[in-house]
Amino acid sequence: MSFLGFPLMRYIDINDSEEVLRAIRLCDNDYPIDLIMHTPGGLVLSAGQIAYALSRHPGKVTVFIPHYAMSGGTLIALAADEIVMDENAVLGPVDPQIGQSPAASVLTVLDRKEAKDIDDQTLIMADVAQKAMHQVQTFVRELLSERLPPEQADRLADTLSQGTWTHDYPITAQAARAMGLPVQTEMPTEIYQFMALFPQPKRTRPAVEYIPLPHHERRESGKG
């Protein structure tokens, strides 16, 4: 891998979008971009800026997902020419969240109650939720229409942005490919080696401990 690559790890915020947009601007038009993502999501504004910039880049854009890229991470992945996922990695829905609640769930209140029985704060949240869902749906449709037929882009935009699943629903590589996304699972070894440079913070009492043994010891014990 001899071309530009940069990682997006942790929650995506405005500082991340500033850095990534700056890096993209430094690339020649025909320069391929590799983006490694390991993120639970983040600000729609920041993820959207990065996705727009990547979709406009003339050179090939490849997004590598060794573990997971949820929510805003998935939004960015939709802008790629190619998505490379580990066979066990996942994407996620991109439906907007209003406060601590999914926008789609907030809107169900309008169907279950009459306006006179709904408090003002909930009505305001529902209005914001409706706008947020429309905005994300439109944005996803624009990204997908670059690579998918219009009808397929519309259906997939609805599926991903309109609260079809819970926000943490795991979309596997196989499922993403079936949806029409440009997914393949041949992850370069260099990506795993790179990720090993960023270990998770150690807990006081880890729930899982992995102790590697030499292969010949496993063979001798009859377990290799």
Model description:
The chain has about 220 residues and is α/β, with parallel strands linked by helices. It has a domain at about 5-90 and about 170-220: 2-enoyl-CoA Hydratase, Chain A, domain 1 (Alpha-Beta Complex). It has nine helices and ten strands. A five-stranded parallel beta sheet has the order 1-2-3-5-10. The protein has a three-stranded mixed beta sheet with strand order 4-6-9. A two-stranded antiparallel sheet has the order 7-8. Strand 7 (about 95-100) and strand 8 (about 100) form a beta hairpin. The radius of gyration is 20 Å and the shape is globular.
Helical content class: 40-55%
Kindly report the CATH topology of the domain at 4-92 and 170-220: 2-enoyl-CoA Hydratase, Chain A, domain 1
The geometry reads as: globular
CATH architecture of the domain at 4-92 and 170-220: Alpha-Beta Complex
Assembly of the depicted chains = single chain
Give the integer mean of the pLDDT values.
89
| Secondary structure category | alpha/beta
Number of helices: 9
**How many extended strands?**
10
User: N- to C-terminal separation?
Assistant: 32 Å
* Spatial strand arrangement across the major sheet: 1-2-3-5-10
Biggest beta sheet summary: 5 strands, parallel
Strand content: 5-15%
Q: What is the CA-atom radius of gyration, in angstroms?
A: 20 Å
